[in-house]
Amino acid sequence: MRLINDGHTDACFNLAAEEYVFEHFPERCFMLWCNEPAIVVGRHQNALAEVNVEYVRRNGIKVVRRLSGGGAVYHDAGNLNFTFIERQDTGQTVDFSRFSAPIIALLREKGVEAEIGKRDELSVNGAKISGVAKHVSRGRILYHGTLLFSGNLTALTEALRTAPGKFSDKAIPSVRSKVGNISEYLSPPTDVAQFRAAVFAYMLRHLPHAREYSYSEADLTAVRQLRDEKYARWEWNFGQSPPYAMTRSVALDGKTFSASLNVRQGIIRQIRFEGPFPENSLKTLAQLLLNTPHRQDAIRSKLTSSRLTDPFRNNIDAVLEAMNGL
């Protein structure tokens, strides 16, 4: 069994590494990794509906889509992530809770009484410390999860704070839970680097036929290519959202201005603006932005390269806010 403890902190790289290992390493693998601030959304989620757009944009937080289903999670340097990859035996039902068994055993060894929940999440005293998700394809299983050790819970709450009722879609919504940090339950105090080392050492001792593996230059080249061609691209992270409708209202020139969009594959397929403004101006604006990617830079480019009429000519930022793209 290969154990990989890689130091990259780019969420796009780490998710690409997961897919690369899943597709190219035939033996069982365990991976331990950590991201700089990022929101990782589930495969079948509407990325825009899961994040606080203004907070994410203001703080430069990446939003990246993963292979597995489930809900959106916030990652930072205080959050440790683990991944199990192995073959699925034909005709056998997979007991996914067994992947959490060594994590629970490790935590209990350190005096943290973690319990497993209905969705295989781990909690301590009712506070969620680990969320998990899975991906099964072509006889292979990828099971991964978070270990919230010393994460910034304020940033977590703000980054995932969404405006209810703004989107209409058939995407899988996240289930919000009370969360807590593992570090709160440890004595003596331990930092995340020490905890990471302890997790890896425990897996080396207890997982069968475990051996440490470091990526080769060929591995790194392939992972970087997958990162650049998929996980770092808007087309995957946002364009792969299920079709959705969105309505949002803002103040423009002291009046209420609203945008209603229908988006498919990340492209604005239908659009309507409403407000106490000339009807021909509203229709011209809608026509201008039809078939534009629902992303801020593409919308801004259209607005700044065209001859807008009043009241929109000097209120491009308000139009962008109503459009709500990332």
Keywords:
Enolase-like, domain 1; BirA Bifunctional Protein, domain 2; 2 domains; alpha+beta; elongated; 16 strands; six-stranded mixed sheet; 326 residues
Topology, element by element:
Blueprint: E1 2-5, H1 11-24, E2 29-34, E3 38-41, H2 47-50, H3 53-59, E4 62-65, E5 73-75, E6 79-87, H4 97-109, E7 115-116, E8 122-124, E9 127-130, E10 132-137, E11 140-148, H5 153-159, E12 167-169, H6 192-206, E13 211-212, H7 217-231, H8 234-237, E14 244-252, E15 255-264, E16 267-274, H9 279-289, H10 296-304, H11 316-323
Parallel strand pairs: 1-2, 1-13, 3-4
Antiparallel strand pairs: 2-6, 3-5, 6-11, 7-8, 8-9, 10-11, 12-14, 14-15, 15-16
Helix pairs in contact: 1-7
CATH architecture of the largest domain: 2-Layer Sandwich
User: Considering DSSP H and I runs of 4 or more, what fraction of the residues is helical?
Assistant: 25-40%
What do we call the CATH homologous superfamily of the largest domain? Answer: Bira Bifunctional Protein, Domain 2
- Tell me the count of domains: 2
Task: Return the string of H and E elements.
Answer: EHEEHHEEEHEEEEEHEHEHHEEEHHH
Spatial arrangement of strands, main beta sheet: 10-11-6-2-1-13
Main β-sheet: number of strands, strand sense, barrel status? Answer: 6 strands, mixed
Query: Which secondary-structure class do the elements indicate?
Result: alpha+beta
Mean pLDDT equals 93
pLDDT < 50 stretches: none
Radius of gyration: 22 Å
